[in-house]
Amino acid sequence: MNKNMEKLLIQCITEHKENVYRLAYSYVKNAEDALDIVQDAIQKAFTSASGLKSESTMKSWFYRIVINTSLDFLRKHKRVRPVDDVTLELHGPIVEDVYQNVDLEQAMEELPTAYRTVIVLRYFEDLKIEEMAEVLNENVNTVKTRLYQALNKLRVKMKDDSPQEVR
């Protein structure tokens, strides 16, 4: 890898470190595992950077590496699902009421991976449709359709779980 490409890769990783951490965390729901995934993704990026054709696609290329590394991690650890401290506290003795949008989290968890990924990339990582298409290596229209379907499924799940008034 030439020095210019190495500098650009370091700059890309530095600029997007919080975003890729959040992306990894959205898959594994554990801080330590998310850090491991990001570290593995950085290592994979440096070892395969020579195959990168264009500097303009570096961000989407790196996001794709993070997503693939997250999915690989989930496949390897399918049987064991670690619980982070925040989740553990939610299920432990409660001192005070803290509201979180548990319904949204649960509905997101029930979505298939492809749908959850487009929602996370669009609304949590604030990527444009074209950037999402690059990251996912999909056609723009496919990404639009998948996002539309994901939002509809999420809307249905959220509507079905809403509390009903008792009369």
User: What is Rg?
Assistant: 18 Å
Gross geometry: globular
Strand content: under 5%
The name of the CATH architecture of the largest domain is Orthogonal Bundle
> How large is the count of helical segments?
9
Poorly predicted tracts of residues? 91-99
Q: What oligomerization state is this entry in?
A: single chain
The span between the termini is: 69 Å
CATH class of the largest domain: Mainly Alpha
Assigned CATH superfamily of the largest domain: RNA polymerase sigma factor, region 2, helix turn helix motif
- The sequence of SSEs as H and E is HHHHHHHHH
Q: What number is the mean pLDDT? A: 80
Q: State the major sheet.
A: none
Domain module tally: 2
Helix content: over 70%
- Helix/strand-derived category reads mainly alpha
CATH topology (fold) name of the largest domain: Rna Polymerase Sigma Factor, Chain: A
